[in-house]
Amino acid sequence: MKFALSLVALASPAFAHTIFTTLWVNGVSQGALNGVRYPSYDGPVTDVTSNSIICNGDPNPLITPFSKTVIDVPAGATIQHEWHHTLTSQFGSDNADPIDPGHLGPVIVYLAKVPDATQTSVTGLGWFKIAEWGLENGCGVWGVTQLWNLKGKFPAVIPSCIPSGNYFLRAEIIALHPASTYPGAQFYMECAQINVVGGGSVSPPTVSFPGAYHGSDPGITIDIYYPPVTNYTVPGPAVFTCPGSDGSSTSSSTSTTTSTTTSSSTKSTTTSTTSTTSTTTSSTTKSTSSTTTSTTTSSASGATQTKYGQCGGQGYTGPTVCASGSTCKSSSPYYSQCL
Ligand SMILES: [Cu+2]
Description:
Layout: H1 2-11, E1 19-25, E2 28-29, E3 36-37, H2 52-55, E4 71-74, E5 78-84, E6 107-113, E7 127-133, H3 143-149, E8 153-157, E9 165-175, E10 186-197, E11 252-255, E12 292-295, E13 300-305, E14 310-312, E15 319-322, E16 328-332, E17 335-338
Parallel strand pairs: 4-10, 13-15
Antiparallel strand pairs: 1-2, 1-5, 3-10, 5-8, 6-7, 6-9, 9-10, 11-12, 14-17, 16-17
The structure holds copper (II) ion.
């Protein structure tokens, strides 16, 4: 089994990598390659001790001079980081866009406070994690698969309590298909230049890059094919949440699904005369009352969210009712999704 799956991995496109190209703020694109530091080549970083693990770089040449744009982002805003296979790929016309679907692994977002988001240097900063999607327990969906479901645009919420000012937003995908030995795991990341406005006064605990990741981390050196992964530990620190907003108070998402099998009857009648058997089976299954209730502080009523769309989470104001065939499931205090 392991051998067969490894062949599948080897057969996937050798250079089907990915780049975070575009930041969205509260549903509005900030422009392709605007306010983002990106390389000319979409390759991975594999050395977690190199400075390229911070905001990409050697062996992938970063395009300079960097964008002069610093993107204003309200504290509490929902951002989306949009990924593409190459700088020119588009979802739907490139079967490895936003990324080769075999590049399974987590999707992660960090922030680092910085004096000036247009400064060249990215070293010596303190980073904190604001979002992660590893392998969701229960549904077994990798972050990368989820990225596909979302057509390359992954959401995160800027914590409302962090101080206003300039930050680097580091969006990251770790592809684990070659991660059974180290170096192997492929780290893809770009940094966006943002300015948080209307923030608070809580300074999150931070980690360093390089430093936060080690080749021995169970989420970095791992065979994702065998034995089957049931629990995946995303590398780096825990996701920071503002004090008092653990998700249970400001945003509660409950999902209630009731499937009732009201009548299941099997009737077998066998009539034997000489050597003839006649069997009649009648099976009736009736599923009723599939109810999804999602409560958010402010929500649009009447609208229905499509399958795989967002249906809840802190700060979310869109539709909370899922299209038939899907139910609203909470994956974090920040994100619930129609699955
Ligand atoms: Cu690749």
